[in-house]
Structures are given as structure tokens and as C-alpha cells.
Inverse folding.
């Protein structure tokens, strides 16, 4: 029997947290799921813990492999997954007991290809995304707030959509979630966002912070994403996602002079300025939103305003 959800669960040296994470998954009120646990060459006791749980829960599929990184582990997990929808949980995080049930209810109601739960709680911090929203179509959601958030563990993806386009996680990236999410979103017919039971995200002291290396990694993501859009003819539509990328990749790191110069060069290389100049809808819907956002970020206001206007041919 095909499970409704396949949960992709990469594990690498998280012996301190993985047991609690597994307990939160197997405490779900919605039971029609399989857990694909990928031991990515752990050198601690993580594999022993996984084996113990696999003896108790027949819906835990355990795969053990040499270390290849998070993207590689997720890709292997997707190959083994048989569920109708794919979810992702990191092995040091927790999910609320109704987490899967809330996804299921929204999917059944909307028949969405992709669902996003905006309710995230960081450990030892106040909840994020507290805005109480009802299910919302993606385009409406982006127009209200262009900052989508690309953490793959906030989504449920229809597996046939992933298989149809052969999408995988890019290896060797710091922000490996971003290309996957932004490549698949425009391909879906129905995308809904909702605020359900929370995903509890454990933030470590060594978590990625804003730095120049991470910034330039996002430029490589940007290049791959835009080239994917070009291959799928997405840039010839009025889909909002390409403009989200322009907004996001520029505003988050506008204070890095080298970053700004390189991203501008990348845009010209990909001939996006011509596309943006022709599409006045992009300016009307997104430039004004960005302008308002920049007012709250005085440090980057001048250079980014000039940068974006030059791309849109408004100087």
C-alpha cells in the first residue's frame, strides 16, 4: 500500500538529538507515512539509534551510506520514497504531533501540488511567522509578502511533480534548499500556504550566518535557478517567482559591494534586464513593494534603489 507521506530524514552525527526527533515523528496523530532515514556516514552512535527504532517501527526504512553531504542524502531518500507527498525533517529538529495531519487536511481540501506551513518555532526563541493566515494561493501570498522562505522542511511536495521534472538537490551548496524550492514552485498548478502545527527548528551556534562566502553561494544558486527557468520557459510567463528571486538575492546582501557587482554582472549575462524592462507588471507589483521594504533598511537603500531602477530601465 502506498503511504500518503514519505518523510525524508537525513542523519549525520546527531546522536544528541536524533532520538527526540524520531519520537516526535512516530508520535504523529496521522499514521499513514513512511520514514526514509538516511545515515550519511555517521561516526557517532546515530546509526545504532536508527537501528533500534527500525526494529520497533516497520514503516522506518533505513539506508546507510558513505558520507556525501545533505543534498546527496536527500536525493537518495527521494529515490527510495514511495509516498504520494514528500516531506523533509532534519534529524535535530522536532515536529508537533499534528504536523502531518494539518498538511493532510489542507491537501485534501485544496488538492494542492505543494503546501507550505508557515509556522516555525526556533528553539529558545519566539515563534516565527505568527501571522494567523488561512490557506492562501502562492501568487497572493507572494504579493502580500515576497519573502517566501525556502526551508524545504516547511513544505510538502507531490512526488509525481518531482519525478516528472527529475528535480534533485544541488550538491556542494551552503543553501541547498533554495534552488530546489524555487525550481519546483513555478511548476506546480496549485500551491497553498497555511499556518498549521509548528515545525520546531533547532538553531545551533554554528549555524550559517550572513557572510561573503554564503552570499556568493547564493549567486551560484541564482544562476542555476534562472537557467532552469529559461529551460522551462518560465521567464516568458507572468509568474511571480522570478521577481521574488531578484528581490531576495539582492536585498539580503545589498551591503556587500563585491556581491552586488557580481550579481549585477550575472543578471546582464543572463539577459534579464531586457525581460524586466519589457514587463511593466513586474515593476508595478514588485518594485513598489521593494521600495517600501528598503525604507526599513536605510543602509542599503541608495545602492539597491539605483541598482534595481537601472535593471528596469527607469533611470
Amino acid at each position: 500500500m502506498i503511504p500518503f507521506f514519505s518523510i525524508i530524514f537525513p542523519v549525520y552525527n546527531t546522536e544528541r538529538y536524533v532520538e527526540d526527533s524520531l519520537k516526535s515523528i512516530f508520535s504523529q496523530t496521522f499514521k499513514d507515512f513512511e520514514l526514509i532515514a538516511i545515515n550519511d556516514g555517521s561516526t557517532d552512535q546515530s546509526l545504532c539509534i536508527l537501528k533500534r527504532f527500525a526494529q520497533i517501527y516497520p514503516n522506518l526504512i533505513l539506508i546507510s551510506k558513505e558520507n556525501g553531504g545533505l543534498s546527496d542524502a536527500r536525493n537518495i531518500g527521494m529515490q527510495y520514497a514511495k509516498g504520494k507527498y514528500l516531506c523533509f525533517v532534519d534529524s535535530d529538529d522536532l515536529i508537533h504531533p499534528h504536523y502531518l495531519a494539518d498538511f493532510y487536511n489542507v491537501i485534501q481540501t485544496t488538492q494542492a501540488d505543494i503546501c507550505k506551513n508557515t509556522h516555525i518555532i526556533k528553539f529558545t526563541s519566539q515563534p516565527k511567522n505568527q501571522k494567523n493566515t488561512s490557506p492562501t494561493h502562492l501568487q497572493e501570498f507572494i504579493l502580500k509578502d515576497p519573502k517566501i522562505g525556502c526551508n524545504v522542511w516547511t513544505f510538502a511536495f507531490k512526488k509525481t511533480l518531482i519525478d516528472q521534472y527529475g528535480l534533485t538537490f544541488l550538491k556542494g551548496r551552503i543553501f541547498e534548499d533554495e534552488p530546489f524550492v524555487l525550481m519546483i514552485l513555478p511548476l506546480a498548478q496549485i500551491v497553498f500556504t497555511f499556518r498549521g502545527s509548528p515545525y520546531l527548528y533547532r538553531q545551533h551556534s554554528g549555524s550559517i550566518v550572513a557572510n561573503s562566502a554564503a552570499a556568493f553561494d547564493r549567486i551560484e544558486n541564482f544562476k542555476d535557478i534562472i537557467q532552469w527557468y529559461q529551460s522551462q520557459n518560465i521567464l516568458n510567463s507572468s509568474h511571480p517567482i522570478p521577481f521574488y528571486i531578484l528581490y531576495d538575492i539582492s536585498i539580503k546582501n545589498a551591503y556587500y559591494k563585491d556581491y552586488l557587482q557580481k550579481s549585477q554582472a550575472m543578471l546582464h549575462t543572463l539577459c534579464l534586464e531586457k525581460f524586466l524592462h519589457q514587463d511593466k507588471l513586474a515593476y508595478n507589483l514588485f518594485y513598489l513593494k521593494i521600495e517600501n521594504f528598503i525604507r526599513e533598511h536605510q543602509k542599503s537603500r541608495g545602492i539597491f534603489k539605483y541598482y534595481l531602477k537601472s535593471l528596469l530601465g527607469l533611470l
